Design the sequence.
């Protein structure tokens, strides 16, 4: 059996979850691990000098727990799928050439070195400031964003995290989140399927 780890990163409300779910539907023997599932309890997330909760940093996430999940998949992706009620499909004649794909989705996945070094493919969804702010304002969060949170914390942290990411990570394919969803999906699918085929042929 062969494995492929795909990272789908990007800014808040950039479309990364939508793309990841669509990829999962298109790719046999795939599953998603989403970084948003690993936030620490609100009570332990620190507050900055402006009174804003500091969610947009690695310390606000249980990254050790997330890595345990990723490692569990890497050890035995077939069992990992079964435990989550996903039935593995044999696409190729033998299990030796079967490719299992893990899609890791999140806003800081490339900033965490132990996780970043596992990716075979990296994609980053980006949208302009005004679109991002509008989309964010239409989402309902728990707890809700306080007044001024986007401009006072979310956007500055995005710029800071992105600069850090670009200084330490190479090989990222940047995707225009304003393009039609179908077009983005087709682009990434083609790339991933080519890599899967290359892995099957490789011995």
Sequence:
């Amino acid at each position: 059996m062969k494995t492929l780890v795909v990272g789908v990163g990007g800014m808040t409300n950039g479309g990364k979850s939508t793309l990841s779910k669509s990829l999962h539907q298109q790719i046999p023997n795939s599953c998603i691990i989403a970084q948003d599932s690993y936030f620490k309890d609100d009570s332990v997330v620190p507050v900055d000098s402006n009174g804003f909760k500091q969610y947009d940093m690695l310390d606000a996430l249980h990254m050790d727990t997330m890595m345990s999940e990723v490692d569990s998949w890497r050890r035995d992706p077939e069992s990992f799928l079964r435990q989550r009620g996903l039935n593995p499909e044999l696409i190729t004649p033998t299990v030796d050439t079967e490719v299992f794909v893990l899609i890791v989705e999140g806003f800081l996945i490339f900033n965490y070195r132990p996780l970043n070094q596992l990716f075979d493919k990296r994609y980053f969804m980006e949208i302009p400031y005004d679109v991002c702010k509008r989309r964010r304002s239409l989402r309902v969060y728990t707890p809700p964003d306080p007044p001024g949170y986007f401009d006072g914390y979310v956007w500055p942290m995005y710029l800071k995290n992105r600069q850090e990411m670009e200084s330490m990570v190479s090989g990222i394919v940047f995707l225009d989140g304003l393009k039609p969803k179908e077009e983005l999906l087709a682009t990434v699918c083609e790339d991933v399927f080519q890599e899967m085929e290359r892995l099957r042929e490789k011995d």
